[in-house]
Amino acid sequence: MRADLRGDTEPTRPGDPRSPGGLSPGLLFAGCAALCLLPLLLAAAQGEPWRNAFRELSSGLVMVGYVMTLLQFLLSGRFEWLSGRTGIDRTMRFHQVAARLILVLIVLHPLLYAAPRLVPDPGDAVAALQRMFAAPSLRSGVIAWWLMILLVALAVFRDRLPVRYELWRLSHGLMALAIALLGTHHTLRVGTYAADRWLAAFWIAATALAVLALLHVYVVKPLLQLGAPYRVVANRKVADRMWEIAVEPERGAAMRFAPGQFVWLNLGHSPFSLTEHPFSLSSAPADRPRLAFTIKESGDFTRRIGEVAPGTRAYLDGPHGNFTTAGRRLSRIVFIAGGVGLAPIMGMLRQLAAERYPHPLRLVYGNRVETQILYRDEIEALRSTLDFEVSYVLSEPPSGWAGVVGELTPQVLGRCLAPFGIGDWTYFVCGPPPMMTSVEQALRARDVARERIVSERFKYD
Ligand SMILES: Cc1cc2nc3c(=O)[nH]c(=O)nc-3n(C[C@H](O)[C@H](O)[C@H](O)COP(=O)(O)OP(=O)(O)OC[C@H]3O[C@@H](n4cnc5c(N)ncnc54)[C@H](O)[C@@H]3O)c2cc1C
Predict the structure, then answer these.
(1) Which side of the chain, N or C, has fewer Cβ within a 10 Å radius?
(2) CB 311 within 8 A of CB 231
(3) In terms of domains, do 307 and 445 share one?
């Protein structure tokens, strides 16, 4: 028998978990591709006389690049109905790849216009470019062009910039908004094909949608959060440099979510401030109305997480993500966690325990030292209610350590997984990025099908 954890067929379960919604990744990708091609079709339908190949290529590429730019507002806009099933880390990886492609397409736009003049005298091409960049009629496009280069460069090198994440995020949003408005102004003013009313209407509608998506994140969502405040009810140390913060709604019901999902957590600030961070729910839907987060001290914000006092007001944006057992057809499950990557997995284990999940569950849990192991007593106790086994892995074990020694390399993982056999296990993986890559590669090398590996990276940018 298989446990069917799909939302549409499941009976009422403890905490009434809610499966993530949204389009399938294939449909989302196909929809984006179709939208990128739409302006090309509208342009082709105009029957304009053919200019030279460079100009046509320049117009075609920049149209695709510009739709992709406007689509990024929707994809990074935290819309569950759109990207909930694709998952935040896949969506953000797509955002990063798309940004690089967009940059190439937009940078090429003026260069292709000047390219035919390269022969016989390259100086002619340079002079043509200079005229373009100085022309008052092209000013909005030129500013958008430079802003695009700056925006992508600041995003790619963000980790090395001496600025706070929140400031970078604000500048990223404002620059993106400026690019959308200036780019559309440029297109409508001088675009060869945008003189057509259908194509003009397309650009105006796409820009309006992009701006609405931005307003939704920065105005509508905070307004909704104002009406649903939470309060910190407990903050306790659960391991070396790790804290568990529990919140409850001040009024009304707590949000419904699927175990393993995450929220943007704002502690003690106005919902309109940009000071919010993504954290997985380490509690289960069955624990509602109490929602818990397990947070590791790392940077500016989390370093002081232990100082958050009970009574502090909290705002939650979520739930997000598809790192969850809900909505999947599952039987035997292996969870592989590194450090605080246990947080969402703990949420799933707690929910599975509340549901008395009938199939085998295994946990491979890696840390550096023993004092970093989270919820050890609770994990041990799962053996009494579930078909559950755990392998603890430490890279710096104390003397007399009976568990596995090493990092979660393919060899160490192989040793931990050997007793289970490969069978039809589904693997849920969460931990630091290098561990994730190594584990995913090791599983693929053991012929585990891609769709049987569900993973989440604690990185959002
Ligand atoms: C889906 C997801 C789930 C997560 N779940 C957990 C969890 O359960 N427990 C846990 O300890 N950590 C979790 N994290 C990581 C956590 O969000 C970061 O460690 C935290 O935001 C770092 O903030 P900081 O200011 O202390 O660190 P900093 O050193 O200032 O930031 C470190 C890095 O964290 C990222 N970051 C910082 N602020 C933000 C922000 N506001 N929004 C998005 N990214 C930001 C940036 O990549 C930054 O470079 C999760 C991350 C993601 C994406």
Answers:
(1) N
(2) yes
(3) no
Determine the residue of 96, 275, 277 to mutate for testing ligand 1's pocket, defined as the one with the most ligand atoms within 8 A of the Cβ atom.
Answer: 277
Domain end marker among 277, 299, 320: 320
Mean pLDDT over the full length of the chain? 91
Distance between CA atoms of residues 302 and 322, nearest Å: 24
CATH number at residue 293: 2.40.30.10
Predicted-complex ipTM score: 0.92
CA dist 124 and 114 (Å) reads: 8
Each residue's pLDDT tens digit, 334-375: 999 999 999 999 999 999 999 999 999 999 999 999 999 999
Which domain range does residue 62 map to? 25-224
Ligand 1 neighbourhood includes 296 CB (under 6 angstroms): yes
Angular region, 318: left φ>0, alpha ψ -120 to 50, beta rest? left
304 & 367 share domain? no
**Is pLDDT above 90 for 192?**
no
The string of pLDDT tens digits covering residues 169-178 is 999 999 999 9
Q: Which two structure tokens, joined as six digits, stand for 342? A: 């246990």
**Range 246-270 average pLDDT:** 95
Q: Is 459 in the pocket of ligand 1 (CB under 6 A)?
A: yes
201 and 237 both lie in a single domain: no
Domain boundary among 320, 338, 373: 320
Q: Say whether both 164 and 190 belong to one domain.
A: yes
* Residue ID of nearest Cα to ligand 1 atom 1: 458
> C-alpha angle 213/214/215, rounded to 5°?
90
How many folded domains does the chain comprise?
3
